Amino acid sequence: MLEQLLENGESEMLACFRERFRPEDLAETLVAFANGGGGSAVIGISGRVRPKVEGVQDIQAAEEAALEAALACTPPLVLPLPQQITNNQQTVLLIEVPPGLPNVYSLHGKYLRREGPSNAPIPPNALRQLLIERGEVGWERVRPENVTMGDLSEMKIQSYVARIGPPADVDPLGWLYRRGCLTRDAQANYQPTNAGMLLFSITTERDYPQCELTLVRYTGNEMSDEFERVDIRTTLPDQVRRAELWLGEHMRRGSRMVGLEREDWTEYPPAAVREALVNAVAHRDYTVRGEGIRIAMFVDRLEVYSPGRLPGHVTIDNIAAERFSRNETLVQVLADLGLIERLGYGIDRMQRQMADAGLPPPEFRETAAGFLVTLRNKGMNVASNSTIDTAKWEALGLNERQIGALVFLTENRRITNRDLQDLSPDVSPETIRRDLSDLVDRGLILKIGQKRATYYILR
């Protein structure tokens, strides 16, 4: 990774710093990266581009200096954790500024951008255009009225800090301040921001009624009076976890026989569904009130709707290539928790996963006030012999061999002990006999004949 970064030397996307550097210089470079398309700063590089930083203390000091440099920017930069890269027993520190940040950044009133390997002031016309494109400080960094630190869950904060580790556990509140989850009042006391409340509040439903995620499963291809519904009103990390579990439980899945091999399938690639879910939670416009995220499962498709149209310069045509984070803090904390990929390549992944599963590509559409993602399945008929929904058998507690036997019987008139032995060659004949006997006792199959002439059919 380091060799790839350094192959062509410093550039518009790469800056190298010696092991002894001025935090002010690093802050200027971070600002320049943030006002452009992002970039990487490597600390611990000599004039000959050879890593020289050695020792844990040096690295820890460099990490602290990097975080302070990000905090010195206006507004403070929320960045992924610095990465230590060791090569040939030498260690450098990599600081990445993601593309698509939502604000215009400055340092002591100076607005900078990268021009080749250098930082340069942004010309007035270009600065004016950038301000128009990116707007002012986002809603997530604003302190809401009538909330205090007592509205935050200590348990959720401790769980988050424990996941981050040493950079956060020394000063948890300071870390949350750097992340944009807290701000300071006139007396320098910490207070929650909107982002902090959405991530760690114990009063989410009271303070943010628009922060709701509704999951619905319909029995047909259109909305009807027959449906199963659940509403999730809690903090964003819990929303993602609970919604992902619900979707996994309600997604059709099953098996088919390919020769004597059992092949499992799911209605949609779970990873693609997860991308659609976390993107909706992380990137929706939380200033839109009166409407939450809606996820609807139909027989032929899955629809994920989030309030707010596409942000910044992102359009339907360039959505797979462009990056713009409406909710910088929310995205970073969800990335810290392992719930989303900060680099912003979720759309690419979703398209690739659908293609690998032989499904149509995801469909993206802007509505009058929101954004809709549609994933389509193969139009599976769960009663067909080619794709059998095994969820009901799994719910009965049947083992893999028994489910395989039932799948086999949906495509063949009968099954014998030898057939099931061929499906599970590593299993003893006595275990095979018990599996079939249990299916008979459960009333799922019928036993025909005796001894060597015995076979089984579906009941």
What does this structure look like?
By secondary structure, the protein is an alpha+beta fold. 36% of the residues lie in helices and 20% in strands. The chain has 4 domains: 2-131, Schlafen, AAA domain (Methyltransferase, Cobalt-precorrin-4 Transmethylase, Domain 2), CATH 3.30.950; 149-206, no CATH class; 213-376, Heat Shock Protein 90 (2-Layer Sandwich), CATH 3.30.565; 390-458, Winged helix-like DNA-binding domain superfamily/Winged helix DNA-binding domain (Arc Repressor Mutant, subunit A). The chain contains 17 helices and 19 strands. A 6-stranded mixed sheet has the order 10-9-13-14-16-15, with helices on one face. A hairpin with a 2-residue loop joins strand 11 (253-258) and strand 12 (261-266). The termini are far apart. Residues 20-121 form the Schlafen AlbA-2 domain. InterPro entries: RecG_C_sf, Schlafen_AlbA_2_dom, Schlafen_AlbA_2_dom_sf, WH-like_DNA-bd_sf, WH_DNA-bd_sf.
